[in-house]
Amino acid sequence: MIPAFEATFAVPLHCASCVEDVTAALQQLDGVARVKASLATQTITVRGTAAPSAVVRAIQATGRDAILRGSGAPDGAAVSILETPAHMPTPSPVRGLARLVQVAPTSTLIDLTLRGLPPGRYVASVRERGDISGGAASTGGVWRGDVPPSTRTRSHPTTTTAGTEAPPPPRGLLGGVVTVGADGAGSALLQAGWGVWEVVGRGMVVAPEGVEVEGEGGGEGGGVVVGVIARSAGVWENGKTVCSCSGKTVWEERGEQVARGMV
User: Fold this and answer.
1) What CA–CA distance (Å, rounded) separates 179 from 134?
2) Burial of 254 (C-beta count, 10 Å sphere; 0-12/13-18/19+)
3) Is the torsion defined by CA of 160, 162, 163, 167 positive or negative?
4) Rounded distance, CA 53 to CA 187, Å?
5) DSSP characters for 72-124?
6) Of residues 208, 201, 219, 212, the one with CA closest to residue 134
7) Nearest CA-CA partner of 111 in 187, 180, 201
8) Which among 214, 168, 12, 184 has a CA at the least distance from the CA of 95?
9) Neighbour count for residue 144 (Cβ, 10 Å)
10) DSSP for residue 127
């Protein structure tokens, strides 16, 4: 069962009618338990189990855009921009986004969205290293971590039939499959048994199911995308409306991100 969490979104709200329209749309979305809108701050806060990407799509269906401004508790959120490897240049390398939000001490949700990939089934994994200069091959193997005894299950026994200790499965394997349709898009809400702080700085690889991405030359086929997991803002930690670096508004930055393929 997925625990409830909060996420805050910037939304252009011009009047009370805008607030009512967006609130009504979100209340129809599966997994939404509570919606709080603020006309003064131009934000919508949603509590429940709905994926942030699903909330954005529901808001966009009302004719408005939305930007995720924070999710989860401080130090409990991260993001990974997924791109084609640098040594395989393309005009728009961004192919997806993974939003991570920690909902319990050892439970994190991964809201994974993909765009512009060949149709098929894809799997995701967290890697030992955050070096994506050589694509999937330079990220090392799947992150193993130290598997807590409490997470060992009957389906993953710790003792072989010969009585010797068997290695637990890598913690970086993200269960579930993302199905990309004919339009090149796909999304999934995955759950992992670790905290966000354990994976910040590590790499993430998404590859077609069955494609070998380990070792030299691994992950050279089409459809493999990589990214580095970086900390992002928790709820209420990001209140900026203008970037101090570029001087652009969040909506100007949003337009540039969409043009690059980010979702």
Assistant:
1) 26
2) middle
3) negative
4) 8
5) SSTT-EEEEEEE--TTS--SS-EEEEEEEEEEETTEEEEEEEE-S--SEEEEE
6) 219
7) 187
8) 184
9) 14
10) B
- Dihedral angle, C-alpha 176, 136, 88, 180, nearest 10 °: 0
Tokens of 106: 């050892």
pLDDT band at 62 (very low <50, low <70, confident <90, very high): very high
* pLDDT, mean over the chain: 80
Q: In whole angstroms, what is the distance from residue 124 CA to residue 235 CA?
A: 26
Tokens representing 42 are 């131009």
Q: 135: closest CA among 224, 199, 229, 211?
A: 224
167-184 pLDDT, tens per residue? 778 999 998 899 999 999
Each residue's pLDDT tens digit, 21-36: 999 999 999 999 999 9
Give tens-digit pLDDT for 127-162.
999 999 989 999 998 999 865 544 444 334 444 555
**Segment 248-259, tens digit of pLDDT:** 444 455 555 555
Higher-pLDDT residue of 240, 126: 126
- Within the chain, strands assigned E span 5-10, 32-38, 43-48, 67-71, 77-83, 94-104, 107-114, 120-126, 178-180, 186-192, 203-208, 225-228, 230-231
Angstrom CA distances, 76 to 5, 21, 143, 198, stand at: 11, 30, 19, 10
Distance of CA 224 to the CA centre of its chain: 16
Q: Which two tokens mark 260?
A: 């690059």
Contact call for residues 197 and 94 (beta carbons, < 8 A): no
130 Cβ contact list (under 8 Å, min separation 6): 139, 201, 202, 203, 228, 229
